[in-house]
Amino acid sequence: MFYYSPGTFGQVLECWDREQKEFVAIKIIRSIKKYREAAMVEIDVLQLLGRYDRGGSRCVQLRNWFDYRNHICLVFEKLGPSLFDFLRKNSYRAFPVDLVREIGRQLLECVAFMHDMRLIHTDLKPENILFVSADYIKVPDYKGTPWSHRDRSFYKRLPKSSAIKVIDFGSTAYERPDHNYIVSTRHYRAPEVILGLGWSYPCDLWSVGCILVELCSGEALFQTHENLEHLAMMERVLGTLPSQMLNKVDRHAEKYVRRGRLDWPEGATSRESIKSVIKLPRLQNLVMQHVDHSAGDLIDLLQGLLRFDPSIRMTARDALRHPFFTRDQFRRL
């Protein structure tokens, strides 16, 4: 047994299953009430998903679980690194667009599957998407490097397999009409969540859009920890927030709005905050900086996933029918 991964919930150990004769990952939950409750939610969700995803092709498979000295322990199949860990160890180099396509397709298939089951993940992010295999190859990566500096040290990693699985279902919510508490990790949080307008399935699709941009660029799209700055970044990248959304904000978000528009830059906390927003490019320009082909299709897909109004945001099923994915099928015929 050895240490595998940290987390606020506890830790994950890689262990040898002597009965099945295979390595497994055991998620050990801290002996705190709220974490135990989240673990029981995760067990229920995984058992439900497992009944309908018998091949385990979309979501991580729960092998078993047990309660040991008030620590709930979940036994999972062992997978490879998360997308975030792969990016980090790859010096945050962008993924090739064809790899982004394959990852995006699988991620959307998982989201569509969950939404068909009336489940909302609510915490999709690169840390919660794992490659099935840890194997990778090294390929030369001389982009932007002067000829005089090109040697064997300039390379990047590419996974041998694009197969992924989604993990961490402790925050998964069942469909309800009155969801209004805060969900999602900051960088992947939808505008309706920040504005207190209530949320449902579309919040997962916003997260998918942010993830795809990050895979294409190597960096998180909205790098902030403050609500008003986050909303201002959204406007900078995607355009003006709809007035009908700003006019309906809850009492906690009223301070971000003045006279029917975002209170920016007047409400900014500092000049540095304003600078961090101004330096962001428009979505189209950002994608075209990193994507050599399929840029037009990818931009159109992202614009559908990152629509401010959740009522007209693209669904997972709609996204899977988008030319960014379907044109690829024709290329391979």
Automatic annotation (TrEMBL):
PROSITE patterns: PROTEIN_KINASE_DOM, PROTEIN_KINASE_ST
GO BP terms, alphabetized: regulation of RNA splicing
Enzyme Commission number: 2.7.12.1
Pfam family, one: Pkinase
GO cellular component: nucleus
Top EC class, one word: transferase
Record-given protein name: dual-specificity kinase
Keywords of this entry: ATP-binding, Kinase, Nucleotide-binding, Serine/threonine-protein kinase, Transferase
Entries under InterPro entries matching the protein: CLK_kinases (IPR051175), Kinase-like_dom_sf (IPR011009), Prot_kinase_dom (IPR000719), Ser/Thr_kinase_AS (IPR008271)
All residue ranges annotated as the Protein kinase domain in the record: 1-325
GO molecular function: ATP binding; protein serine/threonine kinase activity; protein serine/threonine/tyrosine kinase activity
Signal peptide span: none
Family assignment from sequence similarity: Belongs to the protein kinase superfamily. CMGC Ser/Thr protein kinase family. Lammer subfamily.
Catalysed reaction, written as an equation: L-tyrosyl-[protein] + ATP = O-phospho-L-tyrosyl-[protein] + ADP + H(+); L-seryl-[protein] + ATP = O-phospho-L-seryl-[protein] + ADP + H(+); L-threonyl-[protein] + ATP = O-phospho-L-threonyl-[protein] + ADP + H(+)
Transmembrane feature ranges: none
